[in-house]
Amino acid sequence: MTSLSAPRLRRAAAAAAAAGAAGALTLVEHRRLGPWAHGAYRIGVAAFTGALAAGTSHPESALLDPAREGIVTGGVTLGLMDVLERVDGAVVDGLQKLGVPHPRPVLAVLGAAGAAAMVALPSLAELAPHGRSVEEMFDQPDSSELPGEVAALIEALLADPPEGPAPAGAEALRAQLPRTRVLDPGYAGADVTLHVEEPERLAVPRQQTWPVTGHFRRGAIGYALMLHIHEGRLSMLSVMVPGDEPRLEHALEMLALPGFVLPGPEEITLARETETP
After folding, report:
1. What domain count does the chain have?
2. Cα separation of 3 and 240, whole Å?
3. Quick one: average pLDDT of 155-165?
4. Where does 148-231 show beta strands of DSSP type E?
5. Is the domain of 101 the same as that of 186?
6. What is the pLDDT of residues 228-263, one digit of tens each?
7. 8 A C-beta contact, residue 195 and residue 143
8. How confident is the model at residue 1 (pLDDT cuts 50, 70, 90)?
9. Range of the structural domain that residue 55 is part of
10. Fewest CB atoms within 10 A around its CB: which of 12, 23, 90, 223?
11. What is the pTM of this model?
12. Is 101 within the bounds of a domain?
């Protein structure tokens, strides 16, 4: 039986903690906070950013020692919070205009995955195999056949409901499945990145989050499967944490750890968006 070394265990634990903190901070709608809570939020963001910078600093590329780099990064972040909050608000509003119903949970999962990857992955110099440059690592990622269990989940989200046809674009997306492959992002995570090779048909609208989600549970925690469409193609099957999940931080930590198991089609409960508020 293979066991993880102590450094790898520490790195995995730090990645989980970073994912939870990043996800929790991203979920905060800072525009609704009072003065005291807003100040505490800004300090929390700056402290987290500084700690992340210190924890991911590599001697071969750092200008300062990790502690000083963390302090400087945290101070700069605090000074730029006005700008950062305006950008954050614009991104949230923009996603809502594009039809994403709950943009903050989407951003929280992305932020958690990014923070976990920064902590969990070694430096690029360590990752690059012998004889291979860092630049070569950013070529087209490796791909593999679409697993049957993932295809079954996508088919369930795209299926026609009993009361009538599926939303527009479902037929085109179903036709893309035989040409769909899975891209390897280079780090562990629950999301499945998809690539459709030369599709015969494209879905309209070209950019959208599919208006059918699949809810499931892992123990006492609720999750939701969401299907993302980019340029009319199947783009990603992501696992999201609903904003009303009481154990939100723990749920995000679980998503960032390797070994998260996707549900089977029989485990999900479909929720379809309607015009009813």
Report:
1. 2
2. 30
3. 91
4. 180-183, 192-196, 208-209, 212-218, 221-230
5. no
6. 999 999 999 999 888 788 888 888 888 777 778 899
7. yes
8. very low
9. 6-127
10. 90
11. 0.56
12. yes
